[in-house]
Amino acid sequence: QVELKESGGGSVETGGSLRLSCAASGSSYDRACMAWFRQIEGREREVVATIRTGDTTSYADSVKGRFTISQNFDKTTLVLEMNNLKPNDSAMYYCATKNPYTECSVISATGFRYWGQGTQVTVSS
Q1: 76: burial class by Cβ within 10 Å (0-12, 13-18, 19+)?
Q2: Which of 25, 42, 49, 64 could tie 69 with a disulfide, CB 3.0–4.6 Å?
Q3: Rounded distance, CA 27 to CA 32, Å?
Q4: What pLDDT, on a 0 to 100 scale, did the predictor assign at position 112?
């Protein structure tokens, strides 16, 4: 069992920055792969970035060069640094985790079993 709670969302103008955090607890095995997803109401949820034990990261093309995913040494805090934000980055952002059984990358963004409640990001033009 893993518990996740996001924080750090808010409203910013285009070009601004936000730092999202996700507090994680529970099974370390089920936190082997951690990720940020986002969802706009009425649309499918999309993966933003993933990080695997050992700090291997991957990013969606839409955020490469602007977002950075990181975690602390014991995987209890997952962070998403978001810079140069754009209006189409506006969404509910979720952190999620899964065990190491499947690939941990934005290419294989399935099998995430544990999810937080989400934090809203709004970017105005």
Answers
A1: middle
A2: 49
A3: 9
A4: 95
